[in-house]
Write a structure and sequence with these properties.
The protein is an alpha/beta fold. It is built from 17 helices and 18 strands. Among the domains are: 51 residues; 160 residues, Rossmann fold (3-Layer(aba) Sandwich). It has a 6-stranded mixed β-sheet with strand order 5-6-7-3-8-9, with helices on both faces. Helix 9 runs antiparallel to helix 10.
Length: 538
């Protein structure tokens, strides 16, 4: 469907793409991975025609349509939610034109060519879309997609301008899914979704009739929806069939094979050099010596892929803790007429590792602030253990950073003199390269500020750690480092997150927060999702 042919993109002395090639088929499910700054978003912009390449080209038939969801920055207003979603069908009249053009193109193609059957499939999909534009089907599709993404039926007549940034991105995603482009390009689509909506999106994308290319740092999400992984690494593109787990295995085997070949080659070179040195002065062996010298000059050395450094850090040792960490009884919390909690009972004990889950707006972040003693309650009781020491990360803490300091200075400002914590290592784990650590806080993006705030929290000793969406803006490698640190931490942890691959290995309980109540379950998040699916089908 789309061919990337010898793409080269050079910035100064760095080649972001070094003659990379690949093909996107009509039903491909591609996970686009690589370290931050490797060129993932640039590759998507290249497909969209927004990047001027140094060399190479993207070959895309005219009948192929692309749909793109960026990470943020989209806002809709002035229409009701339903009316805004209806605009996804505005180009329906173009479908018949596309069908006619593709049908004409088929007459010029070889029926034995795979592309011939891809066009047949594409035409079938467009014809189905035309049928779906019947008013009754259109309403059904709009409501199915919007409710799947977490909107209620009462939301349908609300002005889109009333929705916050995260919900604005859901609106944009919903419209994109309704448009059904030939290739969906999604950049971190789960960032603004809760676990329930993310589970729905996975199932929707598995059944999507077009192709997908997804940038995501969520391994579980990639495992669920992809059948190919494209990895951009130091300018090269490595393509692996299968999901993310298959890619990890294949990448490890590839590097192991390269190392073995390089090792064997080194041994052979050493053997040849030993022969040359031994017989260099032997006239009878002169011809053989010269022949082996020439062979060594011509040898093509095996190169082993460069690997990014493994970064290591740990939380400060926690102070001694009492058995009861915190307990709330009959707790009430409201914002005006909105009642978030109407009598919550909850006890957290030493050693608990709890994932707080639930739909957006149910009160997860509010509960995190209450447990961190950052938010007053309107009724009931909140009682901490006598030795409880709280460490709390919330994204709004990024707003409290000192813009006059460098990144490193800001993190070092909270490290006590007798601490053995390593701010540089923590910042490195959170994607700040050595040169980035000397940037002024004032020039950082919102995501970078969040990571600095997280690094500051990680420097301070506590025995009760509360992390609200700590994995936003972290890549898979950095999340793994944070996972390791949590697993090594001998304290109590509360995590508000929708990233189940991150959560599953580190939690032993799930606290489900709902508008009509809450419940604590002894399980991990994957087991929780299976449970609610079973309950929904009962």
């Amino acid at each position: 469907m789309i061919v990337l042919q010898d793409l080269r993109l050079v910035f100064g002395e760095r080649a972001l793409f070094d003659d990379i090639s690949g093909t996107i088929g009509a039903r491909d499910r591609i996970g686009l991975v690589g370290a931050n700054g490797a060129g993932k978003s640039t590759l998507i912009k290249t497909l969209l025609g927004e990047v001027e390449l140094t060399a190479g080209e993207v070959i895309k038939p005219g009948y192929v349509s692309l749909g793109y969801l960026p990470q943020d920055g989209i806002e809709a207003k002035g229409k009701t939610l339903y009316a805004e979603a209806e605009t996804a069908f505005a180009d329906a009249l173009e479908l018949q034109t596309k069908i006619d053009e593709a049908s004409e193109k088929m007459y010029e193609m070889d029926p034995e060519d795979e592309a011939y059957y891809e066009i047949i499939d594409q035409i079938g999909e467009w014809e189905q879309q035309l049928e779906d534009h019947e008013p009754a089907k259109m309403r059904s599709r709009i409501e199915r997609v919007l409710t799947g993404l977490g909107f209620s039926h009462d939301d349908m007549e609300r002005d889109t301008g009333e929705f916050s940034g995260g919900w604005q991105m859901r609106i944009a995603l919903g419209k994109l899914l309704l448009q059904t482009p030939s290739l969906l390009l999604l950049d971190e689509p789960t960032n603004h979704l809760d676990i329930i909506s993310q589970n729905w999106l996975e199932k929707y994308l598995i059944g999507y009739h077009g192709a997908l290319m997804v940038i995501s740092h969520d391994k579980a999400f990639l495992n669920a929806i992809t059948n190919k992984i494209w990895e951009i690494k130091f300018g090269d593109l490595y393509i692996t069939k299968g999901n993310y787990t298959a890619y990890e295995k294949a990448a490890a085997e590839r590097i192991a094979t390269q190392r073995k070949k390089a090792d064997n080659q080194d041994k052979e070179i050493a053997r040849q050099k030993e022969f040359i040195n031994r017989f260099r002065g032997n006239q009878k062996k002169a011809g053989m010596v010269q022949s082996r010298l020439k062979a060594l000059d011509k040898i093509d050395r095996v190169e082993v892929e460069r690997e990014e450094k493994k970064i290591f850090f740990r939380f400060p040792p926690p102070p001694p803790a009492s058995q009861k960490v915190v307990e709330v009884t009959g707790m009430k919390k409201s914002y005006g007429d909105i009642h978030v909690f109407t009598g919550l009972d909850l006890r957290i004990d030493k050693g608990d590792r709890i994932a707080v889950v639930g739909v957006n707006g149910a009160g997860k972040s509010t509960l995190a602030r209450i447990l961190a003693n950052q938010e007053p309650i309107d009724g009931g009781e909140r009682e901490y253990g006598v030795k409880t020491v709280i460490g709390y990360f919330a994204q709004q803490q990024a707003e409290e950073l000192d813009p006059e300091k460098t990144v490193l200075e800001e993190v070092e400002s909270v490290v006590s003199e007798d601490s053995d914590q390593n701010p540089r290592a923590a910042l490195g784990a959170l994607l700040f390269r050595k040169e980035d650590q000397h940037k002024s806080v004032s020039v950082l993006s919102g995501g970078e500020r969040n990571r600095v705030a997280l690094a500051k929290m990680l420097m301070q000793p506590a025995n009760f750690i509360i992390l609200d969406e700590p994995t936003n803006h972290l890549d898979i490698r950095s999340k793994s480092v944070l996972q390791d640190a949590i697993n090594e931490f001998d304290g109590t942890v509360i995590l508000v997150s929708h990233d189940r691959d991150f959560l599953d290995p580190v939690v032993n309980k799930v606290l489900e927060v709902r508008p009509d109540g809450s419940r604590m379950l002894t399980c991990n998040v994957s087991e929780y999702i299976a449970r609610i699916e079973q309950e929904a089908g009962a």
